[in-house]
Each structure stands twice: as C-alpha cells, then as structure tokens.
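Task card 7
Instruction: Convert sequence to structure tokens.
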Amino acid sequence: MNSYQNKTVWITGASSGIGRALAIEFSKLGANLILSARNNEKLIETRSLCEDIKLVKLLPLDLGEFNLLKEKTIEALSLFEGLDVLINNGGISQRGLAVETPLSVDKRIFDINYFGTVALTKEVLPYFIKKKSGQIAVTSSVVGKFGSPVRTAYAASKHALHGFYDSLRAEIHDYNIGVTIICPGPINTSISENALTASGDKQNKKDPAIADGIAPEVLAKKYIKALRKNKREAWIGKKEVFAIYVKRFFPGLFARIIRNVKVT
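Output:
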C-alpha cells in the first residue's frame, strides 16, 4: 500500500507516545483515522494535533475488556464505511523482578499486550479476508527478540506476539493481507512512567534509556515507511538493535552482556 490518501487507519494506543505520533503522521498523508485508547481526553488532544480533525474519529476502548471488542469493531467499521489498516499499538511495559512479581501482574500485562491485541485482530480479520485486502501492524519491541532483566512478562508478551503474527501472516498470505511487526528500541515516551512494578502500580518515573531514546515522531515516519514496503519485520532504534544480531550469532556473549545490564 503505497498511498494512505483516503484510506482508513485504526490505531490503538493513540492517546500518547508512538500512537499519537502515528496519528499525526497518517493525518499528513490524508488518511481517515480511528483513534482508540482508554483515555478519551488524551484522544481528544491527539485529534487536535491532526491535520484535518473532520477525518478523525475517536473510539475509546480498553484492550483488556475482550467481551467489548466485537461491538467496538462493528462500530469502527461503520465510522468510515470500512477499514484498510489496523495498527495494534496499545500496550503496557514492566519494571519488576520475576521473583517479586505476582502472577496477577504477569496476567494483566498479557491481557493487554497479547490477548487484547490478538482479540482485536481476530475481530477485524474476517472483514479483511472477505474483501481480500488489508494491512495489519503490531508494535512489538526489540525485547520481543531477546529477554531483558525486570521485563520478564513484558518480554514474554512481545515474544508471543511474534509467534502469533508470524503464523498469521502465513495463513492469510493468499488474501492479500500484509502483516508487519515493528520492533522499536527505547522511544522517548511515557512508557516507563506507566510501566507496572512488581506491586502492579505504575513506576511513575522515566528510565534514563527511555529519556535518551529516539523521538516518537522519528519512529512514526520509519514505522510508516516499513508499512509502505510491506515489510514482515522492522527493527527501529539505536545501538540496542545490534543486540538482536549479537543474540543471533553470539548467544553466549549476549547472555553475559544481558545479565550485567543495570536494573533500574
């Protein structure tokens, strides 16, 4: 899909950070936008930053409320009489040692990052299959390619997304539906401030690595470039991207490096 002019794009996690930056960038390309997140006030802020607010519809949702995603999808499909692109960007991070983190926190992270994302995709999929076209994107992480301390559930949920969407891509290839997994490194957003600690509360502080991350606006441009090329997977970041290669070709070295990563 080379042009997004007049195409309808549904973005989850659009209230801030990567999702907001994607909304702004797609609006510059003339796309019809459906923006979703839990916080409606922040969605209104995102809409106000877009090129033409008449082409932006808000659809608040909570990815953890699986039972509501069917009716949310029906509503989304009616807003612009169809859908061309689904961007699964909603998610939550983690900062807590596994030994201190109860399973309930792991489950909460999986409910949002994995099950909510997959559930929404499954609701949209029949529509894309019927019209034999569509594009599905999912925001993973470089931590979807390797594990990292204090992010056990987060890394696991992102690894799970790769397993699902790689398999899905093979299943729906003949229906002309693209599937792209985006793996960002640290992006300068509020993700670490909203990350769940071992207690299940928000961390409420920004990690140094996140503060030094690339701007969401820069990521958004590269994200959309990967979609235009219908890439299967794109790694976007700074030096942390090299860790993927180290893990692949020098696993022993990687194991020594990662266990010495400073736990913040």
